[in-house]
Amino acid sequence: MIYIVQLLCPARHCLIGALIGPDFSSQQEQKFMGYFHRLVADEDINPWCHTCGSREIRAECRPTKYRTMEEAKQAAKELEAEQMETRRHIDSIRRKASRQ
Ligand SMILES: [Zn+2]
Predict the structure, then answer these.
(1) Which sequence spans correspond to the domains of the chain?
(2) Are the beta carbons of 73 and 6 closer than 8 angstroms?
(3) Which of 48, 57, 66, 96 lies in disulfide reach of 72, CB 3.0 to 4.6 Å?
(4) How far is the CA of 71 from the centre of ligand 1 (A)?
(5) pLDDT digits (tens, 9 = 90+) for 58-87
(6) d(CA 73, ligand 1 centre) in Å
């Protein structure tokens, strides 16, 4: 089983994520969760969602449906491409709105 650790807003837009391999331990989970919480607390990343603007950011770790890292990486790349397209669309709408 492959796991994913993410920083998410309440609408589940992902700010940052990492896949964790099948030899996953609760100790690794705590390490990732701590690291992600520090990223937000120290503002090493912008601590808000760039899609919806929410500042309620939290870390989450959950199993994926993928058994191998290769399957999970492929799915993650596809989701990332979809999110980037959504982001480009939202940025384009914001640019148009700011010119009016
Ligand atoms: Zn959001």
Answers:
(1) 3-99
(2) no
(3) 66
(4) 26
(5) 889 899 999 999 999 999 999 889 888 988
(6) 22
